[in-house]
Amino acid sequence: MKISFKTKLLLCMLIPVVILLSMTITPLLTLYKGTEVYIKANAYSSSDSFRGKNLSIEYSINHLDRSKFITEILNKEYKNYNPMNGYAVLKKNGNFYDVDYITLKKPTSGLYLKCFFTLYQEEEPNDKIDPRVYVNYNLDKYFSSEKEGLTPTHEFKYESEMTWNYLAKIKIYKGYALLHDVILKK
């Protein structure tokens, strides 16, 4: 059976459309079925030629103490800097959510975020090892809004000065997170 040129052309035009539509399924499910949570954040003014003026966002859940990792993860021997995939299980703490623990196995219930992290650190005799680990959640790191008053007035020079003056409104569905809004705390 010979396929006509018009049929081949139609198939070639439909393939990119189908791929683009399939890429919107997870974000749309998260938007409509996701659970809304608030996470503490800091925002910094930034701008570039692609995004224009925006807020660069740092989440409080990005820097975690090693005690948040299950012992199975901490007892492994790491010989390289390759990131590990895991899941951060969230728990409610007042009006916002914090990380309860990090595990390698996908949780069957509750709120969780897919994440990746690197625990390997080179040890030198005189160096103090940082007890915290940077965990990446693939959350949006830039946010643009037409709201007035979202522009930060103070840039932090030291991490000890951070006060987490913003709340990030995030929707989570089966580990996938979508930044919905950034709100200035009152």
From TrEMBL:
Superkingdom of the organism of origin: Bacteria
InterPro entries in the cross-refs: GDYXXLXY
Protein name: GDYXXLXY protein
Gene source species: Clostridium magnum DSM 2767
